[in-house]
């Protein structure tokens, strides 16, 4: 069984906790009131039936639901990011400024951490159907898998997209481990 650490981060009020609860099948509810995450919440769950190379794989997933309040918690980012194999960036495409914040988060949690762009998933989580300030993401995200996170209208698609993302992470983790093993074995004299 594979162990995966996935960081969920994005601007404040983008819906990270709701999405994290949904993906982890957690039943926490705030009664519709907004309660900002203080630091980080770690949800652990088993994700079964992830298909890779024609076989079914299970993964123990640690989903780190991180606060989007950079002014208060940016000093904690190194701890959030340490050991993460994947990053889910959540934003509201109808909130101006979210695109710029996503750039900063992508730079730190993906690029500076040395992760592949495929180790990141961007979820647009519109809070309303109004498109008065629709955010357009920069070319930085052109190679990053993207999806819409509408739990109420299409939760099955969100879960499917997330499972596809996890399957890709497992494949990359396996490849990395195999490369490390080959490197170690080739360093021994024959």
UniProtKB/TrEMBL annotation:
The GO molecular function terms of this record are: GTP binding
Q: Highest lineage ranks of the organism?
A: Eukaryota, Metazoa, Ecdysozoa, Arthropoda, Hexapoda
The record's keywords, sorted A to Z, are: GTP-binding, Nucleotide-binding
Query: Does the record's keyword annotation contain Hydrolase?
Result: no
Q: What is this protein called?
A: Intraflagellar transport protein 22 homolog
* Protein source organism: Megalurothrips usitatus (bean blossom thrips)
Q: Which domain of life is it from?
A: Eukaryota
Q: Does the keyword Nucleotide-binding apply?
A: yes
Where are the bilayer-spanning segments?
none
């Amino acid at each position: 069984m594979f162990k995966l650490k996935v960081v969920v981060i994005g601007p404040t009020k983008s819906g990270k906790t709701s999405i994290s609860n949904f993906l982890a099948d957690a039943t926490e509810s705030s009664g519709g009131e907004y309660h900002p995450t203080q630091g980080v919440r770690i949800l652990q769950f088993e994700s079964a039936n992830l298909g890779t190379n024609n076989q079914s794989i299970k993964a123990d997933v640690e989903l780190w639901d991180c606060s989007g309040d950079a002014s208060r918690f940016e000093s904690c980012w190194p701890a959030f990011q340490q050991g993460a194999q994947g990053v889910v960036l959540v934003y509201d495409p109808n909130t101006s400024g979210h695109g710029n914040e996503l750039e900063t988060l992508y730079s730190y949690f993906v690029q500076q951490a040395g992760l592949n762009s495929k180790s990141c998933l961007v979820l647009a989580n519109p809070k309303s159907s109004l498109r008065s300030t629709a955010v357009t993401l920069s070319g930085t995200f052109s190679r990053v898998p993207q999806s819409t996170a509408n739990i109420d209208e299409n939760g099955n698609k969100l879960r499917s997209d997330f499972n596809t993302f996890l399957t890709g992470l497992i494949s990359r983790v396996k490849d990395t481990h195999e490369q490390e093993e080959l490197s170690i074995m080739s360093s021994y004299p024959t």
